[in-house]
Amino acid sequence: MRTNWYFLVNMFEIMAGVVAGVLLGALSGLIPGIHANTMAGILMGASPVLFPLTGPYMLAAALFSTLITHTFVDIIPATYFGLPDPDTALAVLPAHELCIEGRAEEAIRLSALGGLWGLLFAIPLSVLALFCIQSLQPFLDWGIGLILIAVMGLLIVLSQAPFFAFSLFFVSGALGIFAFTYEPLSWHLPGSSILMPLLTGLFGVSVLMVSSAGPIPVQRYSGLSFPAKTTIMSAVPGTIAGIVVGWLPGLSNASANALLSAVFPIGNEKRRYLVATGAANTANAVLGLAVLYAISRQRNGIMVILASIEIPPFFTLLFAGALAGLCAYVVTILLSGTSGLFSGHDARKISLFVIGFVFVLCAILTGPFGLFILILAILVGLIPYLVQIPHIYCIGCITVPVILYSFDLLG
């Protein structure tokens, strides 16, 4: 009888944590520049008050549910405002293009559908990984740099202008090295990171500065023309990419997006790319949990916090994440229906307002050094428009530091 009582109490904590996590993840996903780690920092700051009221299991479920929900909802500001966070650095480009074409709801639904498939695929794969990671990890740690060199080298060689592509990759990589090396100069509020000004400048503000003026087209949605088979075939490589970067140290969702761009060219297959990146972001979050339990490595800020508190068994927290993912999918689909609210509004005024908001938010979260990185990133982000090449090569800001780190050339 006592065992049943404890089970009911723990399940109540888990369910309450899922509800709280979905709400917090939706909030962080909707606010440009705010990451799930920010909400995690707020939760931990309030933990002395929350612990006596809720217990550690509710906090753990809330943290993981926040992360899962954020991977679904963060496509919304990327679509409407063209502003990325670390999870949508490359996905922002095709999503915002579809918005300009009047198909914002389609872009959001495609990404959410990819996230749902990624969740379904990643759950059994994460269980398998839980029992395999410990024995395989030593053989994989050394190969990250070689994998990225091969992938990015292929992208550069196959580009229409290899010299400019390599130059942009190199310059953005140098900016990334500079930003990460001197990140201690920035402010460190809960959940803040130098990635915010770096990626927002490269893929967000620079895009808004050259975006078209005039009224936003009327948003229309007439259903998805995607067959189920095409959706699954797009989600599978996305899930694999998310699993890979969730497993290997030093990689992020931005790295997964870069890998996927080699499979689905952003310009030609933007819809399949959105499904794939949606799957990758969610799969990455799920696999990160298995990595934490298997080898005690923390792939993001939320996993760092989970490692510092009492957490429930793996399958209990995985269940919480699965439930949060289903709720997040429904929330994202419901929010996608608000696309008509932006129809007819002046795109230039909205862009200027969003740019101003980013500068203020950057100043608050990362301080003067973050503003400096933001300005440099904007300048680099304008280069693709000057030489007429895709923005994807700006991902050097992430991949070059990771390559050097994997070879112990960067501390």
Write up this protein.
With about 400 residues, this protein is mostly helical. It has one domain. It has helices spanning about 1-30, 35-45, 45-55, 55-75, 75-80, 90-100, 105-140, 145-155, 160-180, 195-210, 230-245, 255-265, 270-295, 300-305, 315-335, 345-380, 385, 395-405. Helix 11 (about 230-245) packs across helix 12 (about 255-265). It is globular. The relative contact order is 0.20. The model has no long low-confidence stretch (mean pLDDT about 80).
Short description:
The chain has 18 helices and no strands. It has helices at residues 2-30, 36-45, 47-54, 56-73, 75-81, 92-100, 104-140, 144-157, 162-181, 195-209, 228-247, 253-263, 270-295, 301-306, 314-336, 347-381, 383-387, 396-406.
List keywords for this structure.
single chain; 411 residues; mainly alpha; 18 helices; 0% strand; globular
Question: How are the elements arranged and paired?
Answer:
Layout: H1 2-30, H2 36-45, H3 47-54, H4 56-73, H5 75-81, H6 92-100, H7 104-140, H8 144-157, H9 162-181, H10 195-209, H11 228-247, H12 253-263, H13 270-295, H14 301-306, H15 314-336, H16 347-381, H17 383-387, H18 396-406
Helix pairs in contact: 1-4, 1-15, 2-4, 3-4, 4-13, 4-15, 5-6, 5-7, 6-7, 7-11, 7-13, 7-15, 8-12, 8-18, 9-16, 9-18, 10-16, 11-12, 11-13, 12-13, 13-15
